[in-house]
Structures are given as C-alpha cells and as structure tokens.
Write a structure and sequence with these properties.
Blueprint lengths: L2 H17 L3 H13 L20 E6 L2 E16 L2 E8 L8 E4 L3 E8 L9 E2 L6 H4 L8 E7 L4 E6 L5 H6 L3 E7 L12 E10 L5 H5 L5 E5 L16 H4 L2 E4 L3 E10 L4 E5 L4 E6 L6 E2 L4 E4 L4 E7 L4 E7 L2 H5 L3 E7 L1
Parallel strand pairs: 2-5, 4-9, 10-13, 12-20
Antiparallel strand pairs: 1-2, 2-3, 5-7, 6-8, 8-9, 10-11, 13-18, 14-17, 14-19, 15-16, 15-18, 19-20
Bound molecules: copper (II) ion (CU).
The site of copper (II) ion has 7 residues, from loops.
C-alpha cells in the first residue's frame, strides 16, 4: 500500500473527527429529523371549543343507513379538573356510537368543522379503497362515501389523516357495532348490556409523548346503546365513581373496544369468568370460560358473564399500570 493511498484514507477521517461530520452523527441526525412531529401544536385551535353536534343516524330502508358526523375541536375533561383540547367526532371522545345491521350499506357524510386542518374517517367495519373512501376532507368541507358493512362485529373507527397517531390520540376514534344478521346464539340469555371503550390520553397534543407510548391517562368510557343509557367521554375513573349496575344472577354483555392508539388491553372482570367471548364481535369467533381477553389496539369483543352474587365487581385492564392511570370501572351488583 503506497503512501498516497494511506493519506487519502486518513484525510477524510481526520476531517470528519475535527468537524463532527462523521457517518454516525449523520445517521443520528437523520433519525431524529424523521421522528420529529410533523405538527406539534395548532395555534389556530387555541380559542376553539365547538359545542357537541349530535350524530345523525337515519335508516333509509331495510338495507341502507345514512350516517352524518362532524370533525370538530372540543374541550373534553379527561381527568378531574384536566381539560384537553380534543380533536373529535361530533364533540365526543371517543366519538358517538354507530350501530348498523350486517349487510347494511352506509351512506356516510363527514363535515369538517375544524377551522385549521383536514380530517377523515376510516371504518374498520367495511371493505373500501382507503385512497378513495377514507380520504382527507379539508377544513370547512364535507364529503359523502358509500360502503357496505358485510361482517358483523364490534369495530373501531378513527380519523386516518397523517399523522394518524396524533389524530387518534387527540380523540378521533370510536366504535361501530355491526349487528349479526342472525344475532348471537346467546342473545336470549342476556339480561343487560353496555358498551365499554378503552383509550389512552397523552400530554396534550404532544406527538413525542404519543410516539414514546407514555400515556398520562388510560380511561374507560361507555356509549348509550339505547335511550336512558349513559354516554360519556373518556375520563379517568368515571365508571368507578358512578358504576354500571346489574342484579345478582343476571347475565351481562359488554361490547368492548380498545381504541388505543398504542397499548394492548388485557380486559378482565374481577370476580367472574366469561361464559362467552366473541372476538371482534363475530358470532363465529366464540370462546368459552376465558378469564382475560386480549384486545390489540383497535380490537373489539363481545364478552358475556354471569354475576352470581351481590357485590362490587371491578372491570380492569390487567395491565395494572394502566389501571393505575385510570382504566378501572365498577359493576355494582345488587340483590
Ligand atoms: Cu383527524
């Protein structure tokens, strides 16, 4: 090896050491900029607090349903005394419950009332081309889409606008129940039913915290299945302070969804075993005697259990660091 070659190799190395422009630093720099949030705060949202807009669900005929929703910015209480400027569907977080029948065609309209940014809708309950049917709707615009809910179950819906993590974590998620054509085999045994949704809240609109998966709170909420049911946002311990109620000996059904966006739910009801679990709410996915149901982010289930005697039954995610952050509900059972 001649001198010129050694010098040729040494010079760039020395220059790199002196200027700090070596390969490792370049790689680091690139990784950091890739992970930087595209949007950190939206100054245009600062003074916006749009009051909730009731969802419109109208049956057009035996197999067609019209659903009209809004994307909007609304303050949501996520913990006692803690308000979050949430990005929402209809001013609720989680968004309103949508219930349709298996085989229904959904004529869905989303109006974007957000003064600053686009939003969209991704229904997990349908087969659709995302690049045509789940597209962004600009601020102040509205669009209508048509698709069919061909499979029964308990499904997630969410905003799919980039960065998706930020839109979901800021509140744009909810549950759509597609009722099975022939019902569940256990329909006649069920005395009481509720919905229960788990989701995480991060430091307000902080995409770094969302990306690092460090939730401030993990919460349960319930959405009204029928008139008179409660309809809540995702707030810590609210269903512990005001429990769900049942009578001793009853069979209770829960439609559960883990909206995430990042964490798994190990869904468990203390003091009982599940008589039946229908994973993702499909009657064909039936399991017996389970203690805990694992719900991936976006996963749903129908769970049924019998409360044999009076008492207070905690409903938790058995990932207890999340129970510690707010994900505990109670079922109060009386004689
Ligand atoms: Cu959005």
């Amino acid at each position: 090896m001649g001198k010129p070659l050694i010098i040729g190799l040494l010079i760039p190395l020395l220059v790199g050491m002196l200027t700090g422009c070596g390969t490792p630093l370049d790689t680091d720099g690139a990784a950091t900029s890739r992970n930087k949030p595209a949007v950190q705060t939206i100054p245009a949202h600062q003074d916006v607090n749009q009051k909730p807009t009731p969802v419109k669900i109208e049956r057009l005929n035996d197999h067609q349903v019209k659903v009209e929703m809004t994307a909007q910015v609304t303050d949501i209480e996520i913990d006692q005394g803690v308000t979050y400027k949430a990005w929402t569907f209809n001013g609720e977080a989680p968004g309103p419950l949508i219930a349709v029948n298996e085989g229904d065609t959904i004529r869905f309209t989303l109006e974007n009332h957000d003064p600053a940014i686009p939003h969209s809708m991704d229904f997990h309950a349908v087969h659709a081309s995302p690049s045509k049917q789940f597209i962004d709707i600009a601020s102040g615009q509205s669009k209508t889409f048509t698709y069919t809910a061909s499979k029964p179950g308990v499904f997630m819906y969410h905003c799919g606008t980039e960065p998706v993590l930020q839109h979901i974590a800021n509140g744009m998620h909810g549950v759509i129940i597609v009722k099975p054509k022939n019902g569940y085999p256990t329909d006649s045994q069920v005395d009481r039913e509720f919905t229960l949704i788990q989701n995480e809240w991060y430091a307000e609109n902080d995409l770094d915290a969302m990306t690092e998966k460090q939730p401030e709170y993990v919460v349960f909420s319930t959405k009204a299945l029928k008139k008179g049911d409660r309809n809540t946002n995702g707030t810590t311990y609210q269903l512990k302070e005001k429990p769900l109620k049942a009578k001793a000996g009853e069979k209770v059904r829960l439609y559960v969804l883990n909206a995430g966006p990042n964490q798994v739910s190990s869904f468990h009801v203390v003091g009982t075993l599940f008589d039946n679990v229908y994973l993702d709410g499909n009657p064909k996915n039936r399991f017996k005697g389970m203690q805990t149901v694992m719900l991936p982010a976006s996963g749903g289930a129908v769970v049924e259990f019998t409360v044999k005697e009076a008492g207070t039954y905690p409903i938790v995610t058995h990932q207890f660091h999340h129970a510690q952050k707010g994900a505990v509900a109670l079922l109060e059972v009386t004689d």
